[in-house]
Amino acid sequence: MRKIFKNKFLILSLGFIALPLILSTYYVNILSLFLIMGILALSLDLIWGYTGILSFGQGAFFGLGGYTYAITAMNLMCNVEIRYLSHYTVINQGGTTYIPILLGILLPVILATVLGYFLFYARVSGVYFCIITLSLTLILQQITMQLVEHQIGNIPLGGFNGITYVPRISIGIPLLFYYSLDGPNHFYYFVLFCSVLSLIICKKICNSPFGSILTAIRDNEIRTESFGYDIRKYKMIVFAISGALAGLSGLLYCSWGSFISPWAFDFFLSAETIIWVLIGGKGTLIGAFVGAFLTQFLENLLSDILIYYWLLIMGVVFIVIVLLFPKGIMGIIYGLKRSNLKSS
Amino acid sequence: MGLEIITTAIFNALSASSILIVSALGLSIIFGMMGIINLAHGELIMLGAYFTYIFKSLGLNIWVSMAVAPIPVALIGVIIERGIIRFLYGRQMDTLLATWGISIFIVQGIRVIFGPAGKSITPPFPGTFEFYGLSFPKYRCLLILFTLAILLSMYLIFKFTKFGLKARAVIQNADMASSLGIKTPNVYMMTFCIGAGLAGLAGSLLTPIINVEPALGLKIVIRTFLVVVTGGTEILAGTIAGGTILGSTESIVALFTSTYFGNVILLLLAILIIRFKPKGLISKGY
Amino acid sequence: MLETKGLTKEFDGFRAVDNLNFYLEKGELHCIIGPNGSGKTTFFSLISGFLKPTNGDIIFNNEKITNLMPHQIAQRGIIRKFQVPNVYNFFTLHENLKIPSQIKLEGKILLFTRSSIKVGKKIDEILEIIQLKDKKKEVAGELSHGEMQWLEIGMTLAMEPSLLLLDEPTAGMTRDETKKTAEIIRGISNVTTIIIIEHDIQFIREVSRKITVMHNGSILTEGPLEQIENDERVRNVYLGKEK
Description:
With 286 residues, chain B is mostly helical. Chain B contains twelve helices and two strands; from the N terminus they run αααααββααααααα. Chain C is built from nine helices and ten strands.
């Protein structure tokens, strides 16, 4: 079974690697965005599909990752001159972006751990957990919208307009040479690498004893606890991991457009993430990418025609899936495979 | 000097609390009775505001508009309950998601029909009361009184009407209640109807002081959720407790620092309360 | 081994467990019986840490475990089988048994390790004891009621408990299934101390040596089966004559 999976996975990866050769720059850029959102969806699937905890906080970690990356990178690498209010000019001095990437992942992890400690150790779950995480994301949005001239280091937060001219990710050896991933193809490969890495890490975690405990927690928390597992700790750990992935997604997003704004914390992005996971198949990990891709692809295709109506349709799709298709695409596919195996 | 600040602080606290309480009451009833969080609550409030605007544009007096607006919202509540919620009894998380889908649908629907810009309504009671050099906006004073009136009527309804009795039985023990002949689905339908109606009422009462726009619901909604979640499952007592504590703290902090700091403190306070009282301040059960 | 002093649990004025003084020695196979609502399951919940007592103390192996968390109590060797079969419905039997086995054998669960061979062997051992080896790959949710009970008993055995709390292990079982359960329990009774909550007199006859009768949250009487069977008060309590 696993061999078949590896083969398909290999074929898929090769396909993705080959795509920039046949697509134009515009589409390669869009593909990068799809992958970035896929990582965000993956982070939700880990905590929700696998462990059974619905978190609306992925948006908070996404935005936090993006903002941290932007602020760190610009403070370390740029000369910023404030013209007036929050308008500024930026000269990029160059350098590697390892520290911004590290902090962009670390800060969300810290936030997730602290929040997880407060909530899981108080046995907050279900709707209460949803509400608190949702509130966190929305309040972060309100804060970033209102802090227009406020500066962290040299960088004004820009309020509604966000932070622009953020340096792209650049790799290399610090102080010796650096290579900025400006070209869309190079950035695409970096994002692809991150996506595949994230997926592999999640798969490894889920196939390990740790992963079976997560599923056990989702299936029957009390039973698991009565075997001596400190479930609060496990929840906190998986929440931190999902925070790291969401933060990664956020900083990649920020580098993608060289821009970050309060939109990252938006209510609707959180909703879309949930829709992607549901459509793709809750708990299947790869389903997160499937759902993210499919939905974004359709949106891209149809939104010129539909604009406002697209969101309306999304709302209806949401309701229909919850009522009728809770398994999602990959869930249905896996279900069919299992019944095929049984009958053969 | 000190007395002025204290009086202003107290008035702001009362005003903020009353707004929170009136907004959260509909949500609290649905949560207390059915155990579900209706994520479309903000949108129901928004619909109440829009209906008030519509009725006023049709020429009705502002007071009449405000009084009548909750009715269509309550009907929408019934449609939602019968059309969608009914199929998800017992699936708490799925209901949460479904109501979210409804919320997105309503926001976008309104945006399509009315456009994204806001409408404003002049307050029916403009101006302020002047008291020893301090000014208290007249409408806000009225709002505090309205809130008290609504709370009182809710209390009377629950305590003394047949519906109230049935409702309390269902809250205590739904299975027991249905085996005693109470038609639980009907009670749930009425609950959603009343919850939606109250949301609509909150929306109409708030029209003079906020911008009537599609995003209205989203702006109010976090606070409302936090009130219900920290207040606890006891409907009246919990909402009053949650609304007063959160509202007062936020307004007092905002008075001395800034609005967004007030937001932050509100969230932190809510998290703290939940940390120590996971089921809310005032709730039944252990 | 286990002692409770003045153990009380109140729910809004109703005393589910009332000033209970229970004493258990190591190696006992002890049964608790009593009419419904006499506080038996509440008693188990208090011992295993899922409920916190309103008053009183629980002492296990000379250690006060009254306010510990459920997982801490489980780590000290007290394992519970719940009243309603409580297994992982979506896991196979193999996976069900893996969960308790791995924590017992491997202690710290790291993120990236693989399951060891020891765990696999243990799972097979347990399946042997509960006689469900052929159903290893089946999904637990599809088992019959009796098989689910055995699975849960098997899961508790995988933890190698020093004290095993069995809550109505034969509920809903046929005559034959009950006999088999009695066999299994007798088989482990020399390595484990066991407390069983039960209603089935035949079963109790086959397994236990000492019986406690509970009523209204406290102990009515204690003793060997013959003594209990002939006790007038016990009969009255069951028939509802005595309050």
